[in-house]
Amino acid sequence: MKVEALRLVIRSARKFINVGSLSRLWNLVKNFHPAEIANLMDHLISRERLILINTLYERDKDKAAEVLSELDPEDAASILENLPIDQIADIMQITPSDDVAPILELLPEEMKDAVLAAMAQKTTEEVMELLDHEQETAGRIMSPNFYALNENTNVSDTITAMQLESDVESAFYLYVIDDQDHLQGVVSLRQLLFSRPNTPLKNIMTRDVISVHTETDQEEVARQVADYNLVAIPVVDSEGKLSGVITVDDIIDVIDKEATEDIYKMLSLDTTDRIQDSPFTSIKKRLPFLLFSLLTASVAPLVVKYFEGTIQDFVTLAVFMPLVAALGGIAGNQTIAIMVREIAIGQTEWISARKALFKELLVGIGNGLVLGVIVGVASYAIYGNLYLGLVLGVAVIINLFVAALIGTLIPFFLRLLKLDPALGSVNLLTMFTDSIGLLTFLGLATFFLAYLK
Amino acid sequence: MKVEALRLVIRSARKFINVGSLSRLWNLVKNFHPAEIANLMDHLISRERLILINTLYERDKDKAAEVLSELDPEDAASILENLPIDQIADIMQITPSDDVAPILELLPEEMKDAVLAAMAQKTTEEVMELLDHEQETAGRIMSPNFYALNENTNVSDTITAMQLESDVESAFYLYVIDDQDHLQGVVSLRQLLFSRPNTPLKNIMTRDVISVHTETDQEEVARQVADYNLVAIPVVDSEGKLSGVITVDDIIDVIDKEATEDIYKMLSLDTTDRIQDSPFTSIKKRLPFLLFSLLTASVAPLVVKYFEGTIQDFVTLAVFMPLVAALGGIAGNQTIAIMVREIAIGQTEWISARKALFKELLVGIGNGLVLGVIVGVASYAIYGNLYLGLVLGVAVIINLFVAALIGTLIPFFLRLLKLDPALGSVNLLTMFTDSIGLLTFLGLATFFLAYLK
């Protein structure tokens, strides 16, 4: 939907909701794709969302379920929280279980249990099984509904069987299993189309199937799907039995989410922070990071405090403090960005860590020399103080070297601590570049103080 | 491939290359998936890459072409540059044209023209047509090879026709066109499988096809595919004629690339900067941003220079300068991160800009109050100077408000200038938070100087 159209739809929807014209609301949205209704939801406030979902639920339960599937689990959960248990269960029952699991786990514990108890047994079991797996693993995001047939089934029986199954998520591959449910191969619909009716699947299947384990990290799953250009990937358990399938639309969600998470973690933001959150919620989410920043930002003042005497003697040093600190921070951010992102997209394993460090140090020295000379010469030209120029120039060169060193090490160091390589990295870097930069600058200045004045 | 296995493969490949055992090199890689060979390439230096691609080319041209398709266009182009024209043309001819176009345009102009002239006419035309479209549009990334049949074709003729076509990219949908090539509908392979042989396509096709225009931005295309959970999206020209198809694997590349670009642009990094680039290349790519940073970082010193007298009178102010600046920067980064990312994933249109600004300002004031009080009280406790505590606390509160204001406005302002909303945003923000933060802090201190000392 174009922005203008969306604007109009939002305005109309809000009007209909607020005057209670629910049948006009229904007429407005009934032909929209669920993704479009979800997009509309993003622009409504909680009360309006609740009315819209109730309107959908009363006219077309499937549509309500589809819209909830399209929403972020956080948004879906916050809407559902306000509905009676039996209505939640009723909607969740017709929602694919891989979309139900992430929503349910965001509901208050008691409510979750009540909903699970109220749902049909088959769905409950499927959802419980997904929830049994660790968060952010293949087992958690897979769909337990998939086409899988025994390797001895022939093509014509396969086609008949597929016609009977209608509630399976958009299937592009048919997985082939043996008598013990072990994944044996895969058949594309295209191969089915072009094979003789009495051929058993095992004769036409591709045996070399790329699969992941239930406990594989979702980021790794996304990498496999992206590298091998798949539209779905089967998930097997520790015994090699087929447990589920992850389709590419879920992979896109993972990639989007992980990319956002990289940015958010680098810049000290909670990964669940959303633009639609209330100011109070966002304050609560951001404060812990800011309090941590308060600690990291308190190191540089300690350094400066040590040199108070020097600054008192030659106050021009205070003028250049922000410059030395800022240049180190910016150069270090460049290094951090490239390291975090290349670790994320799997380009850099520990394998090349030393190579990367060596390269970044050379870049730091090279750029440091250029910036240091410019800053040194410019300050000399302005202040006519040769030693000031020298101290400043050398401090900038050293700080860019430090920025490269620390910028490369932080992501690897965080990973060594089993933390996300991006987590608060920009923040940590600033602590080092601010304090080491100022230490170098003010330290050199103290040493040459007699010449500076 | 696991890290340990990859490490071993890299070591063996390098050994075989360096001692010239090319048949052992071939035996090592011949059963690898092209994506795995591409991954191996990432860990080799130029000379080794060239030998590997030549080895592949001599034994199995298709494999060489597939590996080149899997590489980043930049890497593929830098390898091809060293090959003779007829060999480049020979490989490019068997590479899908949507992968050829981005590689060719990175070659030197003369070389590109020579390769285009040496390729088979059909391929040349396809590639030239793609290159006719703007970069980063649907028309540039689409594949001109797709299944499309006339709406009057019946199911059995369709199946026969599809069996004859083998060089089409993995097709999951069959597009249906009228006599003038206008896109009319879509048929899934599943529908074909379950329909009677003599039914014409127009009776079974879905008419409501989601499509994009050749000039649609690739980010918008990615958004559509993600929102509507598609595995392929058709591209039509201005007359509604079907021009190409974009498959989900290309969309994943777009999403990955755009996410990396967001991070790189925010942190002032060239989007083509790679960990494998030589130090000299990276220096050249990063210097322009650093020189720009030198300008933005020179604003704060001007502010401080204005207050030299105040600092001379009360040098403790210099101690707290880095703290005021850092807190503003970090809080502002949080706002920038959320704005850039939510604009990127399409959550925020101009529609909600005012709402977002209002919210961020409230968050800025809230967090500012908490941090300001902590900083004020702590400095009072340490220095026993009530006015220092007050000045510092108020400066932090004001700077967090400014950070929220500037952090929200920068992305929208950059977009207003038709620039990327992320471009250098963290850098620009720091300029404002450093200088306005220090202006507030030192300004207040000057005003209360009599009480401070």
Describe this structure as you would to a colleague.
Two copies of one chain form a homodimer. Chain A is mostly helical and 453 residues long. The first copy, chain A, folds into three domains: 3-141, Alpha Horseshoe (MgtE N-terminal fold), CATH 1.25.60; 148-256, CBS-domain, CATH 3.10.580.10; 297-452, Orthogonal Bundle (Tetracycline Repressor, domain 2), CATH 1.10.357.20. Chain A contains 24 helices and six strands. Chain A has helices at 3-19, 22-29, 34-41, 46-59, 61-70, 73-80, 85-93, 97-104, 109-118, 121-132, 138-141, 155-164, 189-193, 201-204, 218-227, 248-266, 279-296, 299-306, 308-313, 316-344, 353-383, 386-416, 425-447, 449-452, and strands spanning 148-150, 173-177, 183-188, 212-213, 232-236, 242-247. In chain A, the strands form two sheets. Chain A has a three-stranded mixed beta sheet with strand order 1-2-3. Chain A has a three-stranded mixed beta sheet with strand order 4-5-6. In chain A, β2 and β3 (183-188) form a beta hairpin. In chain A, α20 (316-344) packs antiparallel against α23 (425-447). Chains A and B meet through α1, α3, α12, α13 and α15 of A and α1, α3, α12, α13 and α15 of B.
Given helix and strand content, the structural type of chain A is: mainly alpha
Discrete helix count of chain A: 24
Q: Which percent band covers the strand fraction of chain A?
A: 5-15%
Name given to the CATH architecture of the largest domain in chain A: Orthogonal Bundle
Rg calculated over all Cα atoms of chain A: 29 Å
CATH class (first level) name of the largest domain in chain A: Mainly Alpha
How many distinct folded domains of chain A? 3
The N- and C-terminal alpha carbons of chain A lie at a distance of 66 Å
Which ranges of chain A are low-confidence, i.e. pLDDT below 50, for 5 or more consecutive residues?
none
Number of strands of chain A: 6
Predict the CATH topology of the largest domain in chain A.
Answer: Tetracycline Repressor, domain 2
What's the helix-strand series of chain A?
Answer: HHHHHHHHHHHEHEEHHEHEEHHHHHHHHH
Indicate the mean pLDDT of chain A: 88
Q: Give the neighbour order of strands across the main sheet of chain A.
A: 1-2-3
Oligomer: homodimer
- Major sheet details of chain A: 3 strands, mixed
Largest interface: A-B, 120 and 120 residues
Shape, per Cα inertia axes of chain A: elongated
> CATH homologous superfamily of the largest domain in chain A - what is it?
SLC41 divalent cation transporters, integral membrane domain
Bin the helical content of chain A: 55-70%
